[in-house]
Amino acid sequence: MKKFTFLLLLLFLYAATQALPWGHRYDVEQANQNITVDINTSFRVSVEWGEGDWDGAMGSAFGYGTSTDGTNWTWIELPWFEDGEGSNKRCRADVSISTPGKYYYAYRMIKAANGGTSYSFGSTDWAENLADLNATSTIIVGEVSKTDGSWANPDTWEDGTKPTNSDNVAIMHDVNISSNGEAKSLYVYSGKIFTIEDNGNITITDDLTNNGTFTIQSNLDGTGSLITTNGPISGSVTFQRYIVGYPDATHGWHFLSSPIETFNIAGSAFDPGADDVVYGWDETTGIWMNSKAGDPTQIVSGTGYLTSWKSTDTKNFSGNLNNSNIPKSNLSFTDGSSYSGWHLLGNPFPCALLWDATSWSRSNVNANAKIWNESNASYSDISQNGIIPATQGFMVYVTGSTNSLTIPTADRTHNSQAWYKDVDVNTIKLTAIDPEGSTAQESIIKFNENSTTGFDNEFDSYFLAGYAPQFYSVINDVIAVSTNTLPEISEQLSIPFSFIKNSSSNFYIEAEGLENIFPQTLVSLVDLKTNTTQNLLENPVYTFESSEGDDAERFLIQFGVLGLEEENLENKLNFYIYNNTLNIVNNDLQAGTIQLFDMIGQKVMEKNYSSADNSININLPSAYYIVRIISGKNIVNGKIHID
Description:
The protein is an all-beta fold. It is built from no helices and 58 strands. Among the domains are: 28-141, Immunoglobulins (Immunoglobulin-like, Sandwich), CATH 2.60.40; 146-235; 245-314 and 321-422, no CATH class; 574-642, Immunoglobulin-like. The strands form 15 sheets. Strands 41, 42, 43, 44, 45, 46, 47, 48, 49, 50 and 51 form an eleven-stranded mixed beta sheet that branches.
């Protein structure tokens, strides 16, 4: 039998369209190549052999093999041909790879005479220069892990650099991310583990494919975050939700939403035990529906749920992540329902969400949403660009049965900061705090020149009571609001606040954001029960007691001129109304100005008076009014009723 001498050459080039040099038979430097290319970039595999007549009738075949582990091979046969110069033979293929990873290439030839197969580097019967060819070539496609480790550690990656948003990333080892990460695409190989820790996040521009174990962690400190901007998500992902068990009847309630498209409650991690509950909300009846009674049976992405669990636990959402907009339209508005127009929706993404930032397309939906503040046991308002955390349900109010909004992918964000820690310019947050019961109720005052003094669906938000003391401002005497937006700050502005105690008796009100008021203005809290006025710029915390039967219309927030000092003139000042005349009984009071405000804070009268003339004629409709007396450097406030 004639012995043939040959040499296999594997060529990996970036562009198959350019002039490609053939390898020479004795140019063994083309073996053992380590080549890096990008996804879908064409390169050429070429095999050349010589010295012998390779007759197709002999049934000999040549080709190349590919492997992702260097052990298990897939073989591709290539047609061979003579190059027209002697007996040299060749086969070649232009190849591109669509999945990032590490690949091995080797040659293969089959001798039909005995059916034997030689691959990887040949055999002593079939190859000369065996020692030079004892290798396979390696090709790296994209950014590939080379060892178990942290995403941020350069040693984790084949090329020694952390991936960027232009890299197609292959997870071929166990990799965790505990900081910020980004990639063009991400592919997790079978049997490998990819973990986004509670303080980690990643943004993927194109597609995400998971064939391994992909977990987004959650614990007491925070929750991991994932955003896929454009491409699809394939493969099951586990998103954790850390849930604190209830310590008492008022705490431990959670608004829940799912980043998984749909799954059944029964048999899942959210199947409640004897002391646990999962509720759905029905606007038409104003009733919380118990899953144990058979409704709801599923947790659906984009819908919110109310849950409470006896024991603290980390529960798993597992399945296909939602990666699409969630449209809502014609949500019910039921006349006579105890909570007409209120609907419980949910953040449907594995990351935080900016409320009403760019693409929500609200129609007949209030501009403010509400989340359940678990630590305060009350509702907190979310205005434009406020944060809705991952797996967080939120309430919206519709003004009628014809309405629509879209929960958009465009407003996803990485953010673990609670929204209520941020105070905008010309926004004041007042919080009535119940230290005995560990509850609190927030109330917001804003100023926007496009608003009015009445209720504006685009600026104001109706009040919803929780377990905390009820604390809210009032519009038009009757509308209780948790966010009250007014067109401007004026030195005479007075905003009435109502307070209704819960089971506790001792409370305090804390003001935040006063330093962000522009122009800088004196802001005072007036307690009409005790006739006490406190400068909140000097002391932003006001402590008080409340008893059953107290008048709910107890407080005022007033704006004045910096430099005036407010003084408690209790037992020094009395005034009363008789025959439309305001009579002031106070021998110590000097000349000054009297102002009257209605209960929505609008000034309805202002008159100067002298120390000798302390009877002021008033011609106003029957209603409650706030009296404000400015005398020298003193400000005195009180409440009157005109019959």
